Structures are given as structure tokens and as C-alpha cells.
Amino acid sequence: MEKKNFKGSVVLNPVPVVLVTCKNLEGKENVFTVAWTGTICSRPPMLSISIRPERLSYDYIKQTKEFIINLPTVKQTKATDYCGVKSGRTNDKIKEMGFTMIKGDNVECSYIAECPVNIECRVKDIISLGSHDMFIADVLSSHINDDLIDDKNKIHFEWADLIAYSHGEYFPIPRTAIGKFGYSVAKKINKNKKSKK
Hints:
Elements: E1 15-16, E2 18-23, E3 29-34, E4 37-41, E5 46-51, H1 56-64, E6 66-71, H2 77-85, H3 93-96, E7 101-103, E8 110-112, E9 117-128, E10 133-144, E11 163-166, E12 169-172, H4 191-196
């Protein structure tokens, strides 16, 4: 099959879409939508978000060096989109979306109770890149709904009905896995051997 060349275009899709909450030094909170985010280190736990400097929350996070990532569900898709297109300069998006805000344990800003996963972050570094600046942050703690955790303490993100963003559109994340880490090299269990035991 032939391929078409899109020179200099970032076509990495799909990506997570998250709601980021933050607070400025005067105590005003805001929420906005971010799709340019990702895990960048596991020890210590770190992630990044990339923000356009003209966004209101850019100033808030630069002031306080804190934010919380909130993972939205399928039912929150419209609210997620709204928080991405409306500005906190003209709209109180938290009030308009009816979000219940709970103060973080390690940061001054609040997280959205209705989102099943919330990740408290403190900015470690800011890198100017061009259209966006990357905020590299330490993960301080995470809040996860009890109903996503099984009796073996495993987190089932697939139970949360999370969403992804791909080339301008939102998509549900399926509940059924097509494999798991390491399955391609795992030893096959001999059914005959197992039945004898």
C-alpha cells in the first residue's frame, strides 16, 4: 500500500484527553482541557502537560507550580469539550459544569470529584518549545474511585469508561483488552499437564 507524506505534522493519535484543574495565587480556580499529556518517568513518578502560553491556566500553573489531572468519562465528554473551547476569562466553567471540587492532599488546588481518577502534580520544570510550553511535573499522589479497584488491589481503568482524543474527535476506550504486557513471550500452559495436577 502506498503512503502519503505529511511533512512536519505530529500525527501521534490517539492520545489521552484530561481535565486539568489549577488555582492562581489569589485563590481563583479554573479547569481546562489538555490532550498533549503523558507519563515521562516511573521512578520518580512524573508526567507532563503542554500548554499554549495564551491560556489562562498557563498563568495559574506558572504562578503556583501546581495542578491536578482529572480523567474524564464518556458521560463527561461534552463537559470535556466545553472546558477546552471556553475560556476561564469569560466563563466559570467549574460552576457551569456542576463539578464538585475537593481540595488536594498535597497541593492547594482542587480535583473534580466526578472524575474517577485524579492525579496531584507539582511542576519541576517548564520548557519553552514553540506553540506550547511543556510543564514537567512530579506526581505527588493519586485519587482513584474504590469501584475501580478489585479485591487484589488491582486498578481496572477499563471499568472507568474513559475517553481518548484522536485528530479532533473523542472516542470511548473499550472495556475488553486484546492482550496484556508480556503475553507475546509468555510460556504457554500445557493443558494436559494442568489437568493431571
